[in-house]
Design a protein that fits this description.
By secondary structure, the chain is mainly alpha-helical. It folds into 2 domains: 1-35; 36-126, no CATH class. It is built from 5 helices and no strands. The protein has helices spanning 2-30, 45-56, 75-83, 86-91, 109-120. Helix 2 crosses helix 5. The protein starts with a helix and ends in a 6-residue tail after the last helix. Bound molecules: heme C.
Length: 126
Amino acid sequence: MRNFILAILAMGFTVITVSSCYYDNEALLYGTSKPCTDTVATISYAQKIVPLFQQSCYSCHTSGSPGGGIVMGTYTTDKALVTNGKLYGCISHASGFSAMPKSAAKFSVCNIAVIKKWIDAGAPNN
Ligand code: HEC
């Protein structure tokens, strides 16, 4: 009887462990536990792109003290980095570009995809 109870406990523990691994993997893939559902129609510069840059880029690229002489923070400055190809090169850690955000984790697969879709749509000021 004692062994039976131990076996049940062990099985319960295994189920809990396996299911928590599943959620960890999803979080790693998407950056959050939400699936990556944004389409061009739902991506707006003001609503999606600026918050990401605010969180991870603008603090080092202000006009007062721009890292590497790169200024960000307005549509004009951010669009210039799209036009010269540096924005996507840096966030995707492509060779020949400095990896950004500097000294921090790479953007999640989902966030990189969101920025790429915005760029491919012509980086609209929407
Ligand atoms: C901790 C400060 C810091 C953060 C955060 C940061 N940068 Fe930078 N960035 C720098 C510095 C310093 C340089 C210049 C030196 C270098 O290239 O590493 C630079 C260079 C760049 C360059 C020019 C690189 C090249 O290859 O020509 C771009 C474009 C850029 N950053 C964009 C971004 C973007 C986009 C983000 C957010 C995803 C970001 N940065 C976040 C400090 C930062």
